Amino acid sequence: DMDGTLIDSMWVWATVDKEFYERYGLTEPDDFYEQMEGKSFTEVAKLYLDAFPEIPFTLEELQIIADLAIKYDLYVITDEVYEHILEGVREFITSLKERNVKLGIGTSNGRELVDATLQALDIEQYFDSVHTSCEVETGKPSPDIYLLVAEDLGVDPSRCLVFEDVPNGILAGKNAGMRTCAVYDQYSRDQEDKKKEMADYYIDSYMELGSAE
User: Fold this and answer.
1) In the beta sheet, which residues pair with residue 163?
2) CB-based burial of residue 152 (10 Å sphere; 0-12 exposed, 13-18 middle, 19+ buried)?
3) Residue 28 carries which DSSP code?
């Protein structure tokens, strides 16, 4: 995963949503964030259109608006995006790459945002496969995205370890037949007990993993 797992970025989605609600006079439905959890960029846009039929946008227009808003708040501000990579991530993936461990990203984010983030952080060269849930039939907790990445890497799912920050992401990894490691994220801190119960492993920080030996 990427958002909340490699970078501290989950807050930006809430910020963009809040601004959107205020601009168009909308009220957030109950459990709306839970409904969004794990869904692809396209699925979330569809969820908005279903919840707010009064929104004067097409699916494509809504995705463009969200894309621009998120880029403005975080991803394209390259001088600041470095501040959001989680502590220990760069050292961890560098150690794995030095040991010829294959690395992939399966994210619910949009492709342009993913590419912009990895380039801004200068870590795109560490990943052998990068795919988004918009490329598969169903987003997380469906295993589709992780099975696609495993296939692209040429690795049996049973030999994969998924790092995730939310329950639906962890469930997607488990549904794919992979081992899972839950990662602490402040945005989902109220779900920590659930994450620990679901995942095979749990870390508060990548610093706990040392040099990945």
Assistant:
1) 181
2) middle
3) P
